[in-house]
Amino acid sequence: MATTTAVTETLLEAQGLSAGYGKMAVVRDLDLRVDAGEVVALIGANGAGKTTTLLTLAGELAPLAGEVRFRGERTRAPMHVRCRNGLGFVTEERSVIMELSVADNLKLARVAPEDAVELFPALERIMGRNAGLCSGGEQQMLSLARALGRHPTLLLADELSLGLAPIIVTHLLQVVRDAATTRGIGVLLVEQHVRQALQVADRVYVMERGRILLSGTSSEVVGQLDKIEAAYLAESL
Asked: Taking the CA atoms of the chain, what radius of gyration do you get in angstroms?
């Protein structure tokens, strides 16, 4: 009897990507891919080019060279078009409107409160609270709920853990991992808590000065983590 091998869909691919601001390239000749159902971590020291990479992959910045493919199709569409087509993006600045209540933030994002609570039960008791009065952890739960509640195909997340306690970071990263595993979402995660990111990631890209220095599975990168930290990640850990 012949066996059938499942083919995993590549949701996002960058080939020879250079990106930056004006004519100045911050990211150079970058190759990267994210498949359905996997979490990919992009790590590196501050200033390595991680956020510039995400902004270019999301369509906020136009590539200086190379190309971005979304679900197999080359794209130069702006971010709002990519979001309509299945992209979710959580920026390093929490994606909430501080003057609105938690419930109204969800309503504006067209996310049902029950879907948000399923992801983060702690949101249920603060639905009437203004987002600006929520803790940093609650704001980030809301940001992630707004993104995942729209059922994206692909999620880009920039520094979910910024300024948060480790226990909150663990919870946020686990929700991201579960979304990839159970829903088949592809996730590209920029994360300063490198060791925690490696616990949920399938594959890892390590950036240095705008280029990919190292890539591999999480287990492969863990084996070189001490060397990576000593070389250029110490200030980020």
From this structure: 18
Same domain, 127 and 227: no
Say whether both 158 and 230 belong to one domain: yes
Boundary residue ending a domain (151, 179, 194): 151
Residues 214/206, Cβ–Cβ less than 8 Å = yes
d(CA 208, CA 33): 18
Q: What is the 3-state secondary structure (H, E, C) of 173-222?
A: HHHHHHHHHHHCCEEEEECCCHHHHHHHCCEEEEEECCEEEEEEEHHHHH
Where in the sequence is the domain holding 115, given as residue range(s)? Answer: 94-151
Domain count, the chain: 2
* Pair (163, 229) in one structural domain: yes
Per-residue pLDDT of the chain (237 residues; tens, 9 = 90+): 444 455 679 999 999 999 999 889 999 999 999 999 999 999 988 888 999 999 999 999 999 999 999 999 999 999 999 999 999 999 887 779 999 999 999 999 999 999 999 999 999 999 999 999 999 999 999 999 999 999 999 999 999 888 888 899 999 999 999 999 999 999 999 987 888 889 999 999 999 899 998 899 998 888 877 766 665 554 444
pTM of the model: 0.90
Specify whether the CB–CB gap between 30 and 18 falls below 8 A. yes
